[in-house]
Amino acid sequence: MIKNEIQAQSTEKRLHEIKKEILEIRGNYPLEEVEFWAWPLEDEALRLQGEIDEYNELKTTKFEIAVEKLLQEPVLLENISDLLAKLRISAKLTQQEMAVKLNWRQPNVSRFENENYSSQSIDKISEYLGALGIWLYVFPSLGERKPTLKINRRKINIESKIFINSQPNYTSTRGTYSILECGREIDPQNDSSSINDISYSLDLS
Question: Is 109:102 a contact under the CB 8 Å cutoff?
């Protein structure tokens, strides 16, 4: 995923190069060979476009709405680095600005959000999220099946176990799977709807 503006610019540049290559293939190869040569590039282009769209959406969406959407997408604990970065971006903070809030150095924030960095402690994760006003809840699971999550005004339903927050009064009914979720205090009288999922298409213009 894209975690900062430098990565965003690099991804945009690579996407532009790929689109140019695809157009060259379509202009230089017989029609029956175009799909064979172009599909790997088209697949990469769609992936990069998805990352760009996700990054721009996180930057522009209201923080509470972005957190609500992330709440519907539980992640495995070993994948928490991407979740941390998404929450920071949703809070409209750069890695440097996040470092100031945490009294860390910027390279430490970057390393902390790196998917290959496996030394995040629970204390440090809580410190990071606390700077964003985020609560962290961890749930065990016997399987890797993602839950079906429905978010209502004051209720979060996922099948069985019950967990209750004190403020606001959310009731969470959980099934066998839910490794990690995050929550933020939201005014129940000023609730917002979830973000719609994005479907991607490749524009070569």
Answer: yes
Q: Please tell me whether residues 179 and 150 are part of one structural domain.
A: yes
Q: CA 204, CA 53: separation in Å to the nearest integer?
A: 16
Tell me, what's the pLDDT at 58? 95
DSSP secondary-structure letter at 160? S
Higher pLDDT, residue 182 or 203: 203
> By three-state DSSP, how is residue 175 classified?
coil
Asked if 156 and 70 sit in the same domain, the reply is yes
Average pLDDT for 70-77:
81
Contact at 8 Å (CB) between 161 and 173? yes
Q: With CA atoms as reference, report the closest residue to 52 among 62, 64, 44.
A: 44
Give the chain's length.
Answer: 205
Whose structure tokens read 């995040």? 120
Distance of CA 179 to the CA centre of its chain: 15
Do the Cβ atoms of 188 and 154 come closer than 8 Å? yes
Chain-centroid distance of CA 125 in Å reads: 16
16: number of Cβ within 10 Å = 12
Asked if 43 and 30 touch (Cβ cutoff 8 Å), the reply is: no
**Which value, to the nearest 10 degrees, does the dihedral of the CA atoms of residues 160, 133, 1, 177 take?**
-10
Please state the rounded mean pLDDT for residues 17-31.
93
Inside any domain, residue 196: no
The domain in which residue 112 lies consists of: 63-183
